């Protein structure tokens, strides 16, 4: 058997997975479940949430609850479509089936760009921890080291990636559960050496909404970004032993776990630590909370966990980006040479997806103080654009599947179509709020410009292929 596979076998143009897609199928159910958690628990939660708390104050809990409900609806819709038609292109394939190649092109490459930039964010966050331990070492050198390591990890067999991600994600989950347990003990005054804080930190220093609606909106956007990456599980499902059953179970379990971890963590942090404590941003909210409680060495131990979380998320995001790129290229929406597989791994796509991450190395070298914020603003509201495509595609494909293949609906969206429309309205409301606030307008414009460029390019490619198809048939 050849060691390489042509990209055309990735996903069929009708959206279904090809019988022999060239990818390895070495992921097990336990890998899928942890990949779902590993891709999302990273810089957005451990690092970015500090800026969200500083902006929103205690109301960050409401921000995470609102976006948590939204992401649960989106993941239920995505789970329905992915269980019915597993494909390595996930929602990009579903958008193409629903609206045409231009939609798959736009959603897919937007998400690819989001994951690649997220890789850079994770790398910079991890490098900040390392420079704290090894003072005098350059941040860019650590980012470069991490990029080389995880680019290499993703060039290896997918089974190795799955095993690596399983144990690293398990450590992250265990640490968050322990953190929540310690936090609850401290809040109730049961933890030795601590007094119950009551509601002092929730109502003092400006109240529950210290910066009003503007702060809540900034916190909402930070929380939306933090939830981004959960979609990777539906991409990974195409390389599992039992794609349909795997994605259905992984989506069900990941949704409530993520909501519990995120909302619970924010509630513990703002109850125990004053929201305007500079350590929340400087050290990160988790480390700041444990240091505030005076638990010996807990802050440093949590730093190790945060480092592992960031590196794990880098690994998962390179994986997700490479598979999305391969699926797009396999459907004729990218350079064909980059879509080939070697030993069941799309190595050219892995290298392509790592290029943007290496761009973060340059940013860290030129402007280490501003690199993280610049990258965060660059991706802006891309995840909301992706979610919009998911919801719109589900509206179309649910009715089509009920009509043509109802037996494929092993996962069903709740209260369809009402909750789908509710999710779309929620996304539109967030876009509107972004447009109103000066601090988030730049992100909205950047995201809008990128989406427009991708949509126009997708339309052009679609028309070009439509014109050449009759000539090829004749």
Automatic annotation (TrEMBL):
Topology of this chain in the membrane: Multi-pass membrane protein
Region (Disordered): 1-24
Pfam families recorded: AA_permease (PF00324)
Sequence intervals crossing the membrane: 34-55, 61-78, 99-120, 140-158, 170-191, 216-238, 258-275, 295-316, 349-366, 372-397, 409-436, 442-461
Alphabetized InterPro entries for the sequence: AA-permease/SLC12A_dom, Amino_acid_permease_CS
Keywords: Amino-acid transport, Membrane, Transmembrane, Transmembrane helix, Transport
Compartments (UniProt record): Membrane
Domain Amino acid permease/ SLC12A: 31-458
Main subcellular localisation: membrane
PANTHER family: GABA PERMEASE, GAMMA-AMINOBUTYRIC ACID PERMEASE
Protein name, as recorded: Amino acid transporter
Native source species: Streptomyces hydrogenans
């Amino acid at each position: 058997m050849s060691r390489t596979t042509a990209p055309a076998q990735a996903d069929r143009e009708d959206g279904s997975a090809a019988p022999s897609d060239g990818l390895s199928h070495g992921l097990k159910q336990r890998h899928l479940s942890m990949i779902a958690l590993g891709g999302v628990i990273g810089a957005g939660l451990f690092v970015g949430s500090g800026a969200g708390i500083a902006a929103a104050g205690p109301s960050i809990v409401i921000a995470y609850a609102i976006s948590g409900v939204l992401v649960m609806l989106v993941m239920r819709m995505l789970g329905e479509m992915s269980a019915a038609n597993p494909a390595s292109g996930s929602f990009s394939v579903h958008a193409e089936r629903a609206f045409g190649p231009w939609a798959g092109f736009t959603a897919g490459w937007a998400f690819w760009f989001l994951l690649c930039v997220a890789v850079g964010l994770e790398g910079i966050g991890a490098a900040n921890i390392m420079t704290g331990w090894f003072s005098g070492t350059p941040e860019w050198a650590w980012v470069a080291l991490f990029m080389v390591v995880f680019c290499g990890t993703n060039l290896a067999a997918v089974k190795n990636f799955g095993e690596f991600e399983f144990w690293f994600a398990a450590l992250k989950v265990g640490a968050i559960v322990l953190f929540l347990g310690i936090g609850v003990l401290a809040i109730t005054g049961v933890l030795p050496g601590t007094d119950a804080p009551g509601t002092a930190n929730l109502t003092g220093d400006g109240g529950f909404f210290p910066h009003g609606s503007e702060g809540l909106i900034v916190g909402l956007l930070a929380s939306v970004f933090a939830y981004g990456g959960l979609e990777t599980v539906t991409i990974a499902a195409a390389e599992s032993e039992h794609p349909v059953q795997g994605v259905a179970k992984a989506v069900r379990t990941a949704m409530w776990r993520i909501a519990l971890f995120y909302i619970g963590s924010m509630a513990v942090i703002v109850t125990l630590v004053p929201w305007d404590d500079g350590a929340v941003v400087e050290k990160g909210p988790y480390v700041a909370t444990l240091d505030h409680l005076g638990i010996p060495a807990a802050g440093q131990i949590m730093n190790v966990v945060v480092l592992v979380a960031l590196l794990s998320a880098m690994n998962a995001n390179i994986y997700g980006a490479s598979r999305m790129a391969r699926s797009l290229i396999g459907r004729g929406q990218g350079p064909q040479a980059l879509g080939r597989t070697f030993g069941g791994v799309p190595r050219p796509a892995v290298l392509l997806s790592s290029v943007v991450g290496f761009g973060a190395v340059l940013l860290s070298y030129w402007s280490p103080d501003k690199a993280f914020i610049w990258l965060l603003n660059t991706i802006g509201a891309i995840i909301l654009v992706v979610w919009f495509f998911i919801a719109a595609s589900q509206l179309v494909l649910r009715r089509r599947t009920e009509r043509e293949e109802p037996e494929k609906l092993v996962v069903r969206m709740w209260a369809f179509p009402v909750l789908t429309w509710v999710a779309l309205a929620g996304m539109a409301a967030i876009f509107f709020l972004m447009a109103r606030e000066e601090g988030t307008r730049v992100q909205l414009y950047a995201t809008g410009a990128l989406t427009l460029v991708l949509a126009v390019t997708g339309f052009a490619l679609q028309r070009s292929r439509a014109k050449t198809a009759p000539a090829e048939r004749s």
